[in-house]
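Researcher: I'd like a structural prediction for the single chain below. Treat it as a standalone chain; there are no partners to consider.
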Amino acid sequence: MTRHYFSFLALGDSYTIGENEPLYDSFPYQLVQLLRAKGWHIHAPEIVARTGWTTGELAAHLLHTHLADHYDMVTLLAGVNNQYRGLSLEDYKADFEFLLKKALHYSGEKPKHVFVLSIPDWSATPHAEGSDIVKVAAEIDSFNRVNAELAAQYHVHYLDITPGTRKVDEDLSLVSSDGLHLSGKIYADWAQKLAGILFELDSLKG
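Model: Treating it as a single chain, here is the predicted structure.
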């Protein structure tokens, strides 16, 4: 019998890539290592993400990219650059709903195989010095209300990782050396949280 290898598609931006950190410290790669340690047979993650991408740019890229027809798991984390550039919530909602439908399509229309992660709050990073951090945090909350509502509407998993990112000013080991992006330490926490959900889902075991 041919062994099934678990496949994983990660959609997003710099937080999916793990900007300024080694690739193996990104949350998709750390998650794969956790699953392998539990005996899962899993391919390296396929990552469709780029630093600076808005939801619209990610959506446009997907429209012109050929991917596999099906993945056992799909993660979606996008929106920080919409907030950073001052783009509207209305456009974000439309884009994110499109991306979520694409994620569901890639999962074979299996909502329990799709995982939305909330947008990290960069206002607690050294890069935010001089910015209106109260305004940034409030806007991040607004964007996250939208993605949380859509995740609930489409019955996919939702992982609220934002609170942990608001503690980086108390622990600079959670921030990458560029003062803006996050370190592998915080991505490890996300990977652990995702793994905890996956270990409870028998339908996802490779």
